[in-house]
Design goal:
Number of helices: 16
Structural class: alpha/beta
Helix content: 55-70%
Strand order of the largest sheet: 1-6-5-2-4-3
Number of strands: 6
Radius of gyration: 39 Å
Strand content: 5-15%
Largest sheet: 6 strands, mixed
Distance between the termini: 52 Å
C-alpha cells in the first residue's frame, strides 16, 4: 500500500545538524499489543523486522507504514552525509501520562547510546504528534514528517457505502420511484413546457408536483394506498369508517355554519366580522358542530378498534381508551360552549371534568389489568 510523506520544517538554529535521530512514534503501542515487539527498537534492520511483524499481524494498521517511512528517512539522511540512527518508541495502549512518560524514558535511553543533537519525528497522525513538545524537552526537533495513506480504510468504506446507496437508488423500486421518479417527472414536464412556450406557468406545476410528492412520502400515503389495493376484512372496515368519519366531520362544519347562519343573515355587512368574533357566535358554532364531529371521530376510532380486534392485535386496548376519552370529553366541550353562549360560570366545567377523569382512570386500570392477565404482563407487545 503506497504512502505519501509530507514534511513540516520545524526550523533549526544551525545550518546543518551532524547527528540526527529519526524517531517513529507509536503512542498507543500497537507494535507491542499486536506484534509483541518491545520498544525502544533501534537500528535499521531491527525497525524493518518490527514493521514486518506488525504488518503481518494487522495489514491495515498505518503504524507499519510509518516505520517504513522512518527507515526511508534514515536512508535519505545517511545518503546526504548525516550521522543518523533510526528508532521506534511507543507509549501505552491507554495513552495518557504513563504512556508519555514511557516515551520520554525511551528517548533518553536511546540518547545515552547514540549521542544525537537533533531529532526527526515520523508519525501517522496528530495523535502521535501530540508528544512532540514532550520529546522536545529532551532533544531538539528539527523536522516532522507525517505519513498519509493514499488509500485508507475509512475512504474505501465511504466509497463502498456511497456506491451501495447509489445502487439502491437506481435499482431498488422502493427508493427509485421517489429519488428518480419525481425528478424524472419534473424534467419531463419542464421539457414539454419549454417546447410549448409555457415556461411561466410551468413553475407552479413543478412546485405543486414536488410538494405533493413530499406530502405523500411524509404521511406514508403511498404505503397506505398499497395496503388498500389488497384489502383484508379489517382493511375494508378501516376504509369504510375512515370515509364515513371524514364525511361526518365535513357535515359537522356545515352544521356549525347552519347554527349561526340566522345571526349572520340578519346582520349588516359591517357587523358580520363582529358577530363572527363574538364568543356567543363561536359557542353556537361549536355546539352545532360537535355532535357530527364527535360521531365522525368516533367512527374512525371504532373502525380502528374493529380492525385491531379482527386481527387479534393488542393495539385494541389503545383504541378502546381513545373511544372512552372521546366520550368523556363530549360533556366537557358541550358545557364549555354553554359557558360561552349563556355566560355561565366556568366552575360548571369542574363536575364533568372530574367525572370524565375518573371514568378514564377506572377504564384504563381495568383494561390494563385484563390484558396483563391475558398476555402474561406484556400489555404493549404490539
Amino acid at each position: 500500500m503506497s504512502i505519501k510523506e509530507t514534511g513540516i520544517s520545524k526550523g533549526s538554529t544551525e545550518t546543518k545538524t551532524s547527528r540526527l535521530l529519526v524517531i517513529c512514534v507509536d503512542r498507543d503501542d500497537d507494535i507491542g499489543v499486536k506484534a509483541g515487539v518491545t520498544t525502544p527498537v533501534v537500528g535499521r534492520n531491527a525497525c524493518i523486522e518490527a514493521a514486518q511483524r506488525l504488518a503481518l499481524e494487522d495489514p491495515e494498521d498505518a503504524d507499519s507504514n510509518s516505520i517504513f517511512a522512518a527507515v526511508k528517512t534514515f536512508e535519505d539522511l545517511v545518503s546526504k552525509g548525516y550521522q543518523t540512527e533510526v528508532a521506534i518508541v511507543s507509549g501505552t495502549e491507554r495513552k495518557g501520562v504513563q504512556g508519555d512518560e514511557k516515551i520520554v524514558s525511551q528517548v533518553k535511553a536511546i540518547i545515552e547510546k547514540f549521542s544525537a543533537n537533533g531529532a526527526v519525528i515520523v508519525s501517522d497522525g496528530e495523535d502521535d504528534e501530540s508528544v512532540i513538545p514532550i520529546i522536545q524537552n529532551v532533544l531538539p526537533i528539527v523536522s516532522v514528517k507525517r505519513v498519509v495513506m493514499r488509500v485508507s480504510r475509512s475512504v474505501e468504506y465511504s466509497y463502498a457505502v456511497f456506491g451501495r446507496y447509489l445502487k439502491a437508488i437506481a435499482f431498488d423500486s422502493k427508493y427509485s420511484k421517489f429519488f428518480l421518479g419525481v425528478p424524472g417527472i419534473l424534467l419531463v414536464i419542464g421539457g414539454i413546457a419549454t417546447v410549448l412556450g409555457l415556461t411561466r406557468e410551468i413553475f407552479a406545476v413543478l412546485v405543486s408536483v414536488l410538494g405533493g410528492a413530499f406530502l405523500i412520502r411524509a404521511f406514508d400515503v403511498d404505503r397506505a394506498w398499497s395496503h388498500w389495493t389488497k384489502p383484508t376484512p379489517a382493511g375494508f372496515i378501516r376504509i369504510f369508517t375512515l370515509v364515513a368519519g371524514i364525511l361526518l366531520i365535513l357535515a359537522s362544519i356545515m352544521a356549525g355554519i347552519n347554527a349561526v347562519n340566522p345571526q349572520i343573515a340578519a346582520a349588516k355587512p359591517d357587523t358580520i366580522l363582529k358577530i363572527v368574533l363574538n364568543k356567543q357566535t363561536i359557542g353556537t358554532f361549536v355546539s352545532g358542530m360537535i355532535p357530527f364531529l364527535w360521531m365522525g371521530i368516533g367512527c374512525m376510532f371504532g373502525g380502528s378498534l374493529l380492525s385491531s380486534w379482527f386481527r387479534g392485535s393488542m393495539r385494541s386496548i389503545t383504541d378502546i381508551l381513545r373511544i372512552i376519552v372521546l366520550v368523556a370529553l363530549y360533556p366537557i366541550v358541550l358545557q364549555f360552549t354553554e359557558t360561552m353562549t349563556k355566560d355561565e360560570s366556568p366552575f360548571t366545567l369542574i363536575p364533568p371534568l372530574l367525572i370524565g377523569l375518573a371514568a378514564i382512570l377506572i377504564s384504563a386500570s381495568l383494561l390494563f389489568r385484563k390484558y396483563r392477565r391475558k398476555k402474561g404482563g406484556d400489555v404493549l407487545s404490539e
